[in-house]
Structure formats: structure tokens, C-alpha cells
Amino acid sequence: ESDTASEISFQFNRHKKTPSTGSHSSDMASVSSVSGSVLSVYSGDFGSVDAQGTVEFALDYDEKNREFQVHVSQCKDLAVVDEKKGRSDPYVKTYLLPDKARMGKRKTSVKKRTVNPIYNEVLRYKIEKMVLLIQKLNLSVWHNDPLGRNSFLGEIEIDLASWDWSNRNLNWYPLKPRSLSAVNGVDHRGVMSLSIKYVPPGSLGKWPKNPPSGEVHIWVKDVKDLLQLRPSGVDSFVKCYVLPDTSKKSYQKTRVIKRDTNPVFNHTIVYDGFHTEDLKDACVELTVWDHEKLTNHFLGGIRLGLGTGLSYGISVDWMDSTQEEVAFWQEMMLAANEWIEGLLPLRSL
């Protein structure tokens, strides 16, 4: 049923176990060092201020240098974050959507103690024009906090496909509240077809116990409608972790499928070392990446778990499964030794 099979032993306790042939022993990371394997590209939005004010900027594309330029001039009448001191320390940040991670963020300097900051700075992206035209520009204004608890002050989003590129003038735009898609990470990144199965300890034989510990089988079938980040297409592969273990021993991946936005992987991964109670605290993270020589770019992912926000009593940000992902995981837990099929949308993590 699959052209590639991977198996890895996954230990949730601290006891040593002799690995079986063809598998690798992997101890659970200590709960003190639990961490997610993919971080959000958005700064933490801890502010409770309402978006207000305007921002002045201009857009241009330098054909000679193949460079997209955002000329950030100034802002007016921004919200006051620290009401006691009557101050905001604003800066402007930009992303190219839908893939914020690929092109990265650009940001201006921070202007302190003002709601009318003047920047006169140019934010630059090296990008082909034809690729740029399938992007959206997200420009947002933030208050800079020394402790990193930055506050959102407003944003504007521009569809670059319909932009008038003859307009190189500075223009004023009203800042809007955070869009629902940005808050929830709801943007279309493709759909993954997969099946999962849980095999409880000893469920396949009485003596000797077969298997000696529980197993989670993950069959990654295919992905449809991936983001096409360049004209030649996408060279994609899937990474897999069982969180909270983010060690190299826990890491598994498929082969790379080249120049295809609808790749077929047909790859099965088996994690053993599971006890049934571990299913409440573990989370299978599957992420899809675009492979390039220098670096890989995040395309989207899913997290299969109960989405409780807790793992072994510790609060973790990666235990954030959507309702669809939770239902898929619960169905697997209730139907031992049965393949559960699913079609789940990829999302930002």
C-alpha cells in the first residue's frame, strides 16, 4: 500500500528499551524542555487597543534590480498603548502573503513616544514580478514593547495582482482591525489526504505480546493545491514529529516530489513506544515544506491531537488542533486497529 515505510521507537517514559531491528530508540524530551517545532511568524498580539489612524506609503517595482519596494512614509493618529504615560512606540512591519515565512518580514525602525511617527524608509523584497503578482501585501503597525509583548495597532492588506503599478505616489490608507484570517491563520494552503491507525499493546497476539508497546501508524497519501511559490512549481516533502519530542530521533520525512502542486507521497510512518494514555498528551505534527538548495520554506501543516493546550500537565502552544483535527484523532482512539481516513486542510502553525 505504500512505497516507503519508516519506523521509529518513541518512548514516553524514562525507562531504557532495547530497540527492535530497523527502528531507533528515542527518549521523551523532559517536560522542562517541551517546545513546539514550528513558530508563528506573527509577533504576539498582547494589546487590547482598537485600531485607528492612517498610514502613508507607496509601492514600486524596480525592473532592473528585480526588487519590490515599499516606501513607508509616516503614520498619523495611532492608538495610545500606554495610557498612563500617554505613549506608543510604533513601527511598521510587512509580509508577502500567503506565505509569510518564505519571503520573511520587513520592518522599519521604532519611533518612540509618538502617535504620529515619521519613517521615510524603504522595505525591499528581491522577487520576480510574475511571482509578486500572485501575492498580497500585508502592512501592519505595532507598538514595540521592551519585553516583546508587542501590541497590534492596525493593518492594511493589498492584492498586488490588481495594483496600479503606474501609481508611485505616496497615499494615505486607513488602518483596519486585525483580519479574521490573520487572527485564526485561515488561509488556503492545500489539503492533505491521510490515514492513521492506533495498535494497542498486545492486541495482535497473546504471547509474546504483539506488539510489545502501542503503535501509531501514519499513512501520508497525497496533498492537493499547494502554494506555488515560483513559476517552476513546488518541490515538496512532508516532515513528521510526535510532540513534545522534537529531537532528531523523532523526526521523519518523506521523499521530495518535484515540480508538482498536487504531490503523491504514499509514505507510511510507524511510531512505537506508545501507551494508550499517551494519546491524550501527544500530538502528531505533519508539516509540508518547499525544498530549495539553501533553505526549506514552510507551506502548511496539521496537528493531530486533542487540542487541550496541555501536554502532561504543561501548558504548550502546539496543542492547538482544530475541531476537524481533534475529531480525526478521537476517531482513531475509539477504533483500535482500524485505518481512519481523513482529508484535512493545511494551515499556518
From TrEMBL:
<feature type="domain" description="C2">
    <location>
        <begin position="188"/>
        <end position="319"/>
    </location>
</feature>
<dbReference type="InterPro" id="IPR035892">
    <property type="entry name" value="C2_domain_sf"/>
</dbReference>
<feature type="region of interest" description="Disordered">
    <location>
        <begin position="1"/>
        <end position="29"/>
    </location>
</feature>
<dbReference type="GO" id="GO:0005886">
    <property type="term" value="C:plasma membrane"/>
</dbReference>
<dbReference type="InterPro" id="IPR000008">
    <property type="entry name" value="C2_dom"/>
</dbReference>
<dbReference type="Pfam" id="PF00168">
    <property type="entry name" value="C2"/>
</dbReference>
<keyword id="KW-1003">Cell membrane</keyword>
<dbReference type="GO" id="GO:0006887">
    <property type="term" value="P:exocytosis"/>
</dbReference>
<dbReference type="GO" id="GO:0070382">
    <property type="term" value="C:exocytic vesicle"/>
</dbReference>
<keyword id="KW-0472">Membrane</keyword>
<dbReference type="InterPro" id="IPR043567">
    <property type="entry name" value="SYTL1-5_C2B"/>
</dbReference>
<dbReference type="GO" id="GO:0042043">
    <property type="term" value="F:neurexin family protein binding"/>
</dbReference>
<feature type="domain" description="C2">
    <location>
        <begin position="51"/>
        <end position="173"/>
    </location>
</feature>
<keyword id="KW-0677">Repeat</keyword>
<feature type="compositionally biased region" description="Polar residues">
    <location>
        <begin position="1"/>
        <end position="12"/>
    </location>
</feature>
<protein>
    <recommendedName>
        <fullName>Synaptotagmin-like protein 2</fullName>
    </recommendedName>
</protein>
<keyword id="KW-0268">Exocytosis</keyword>
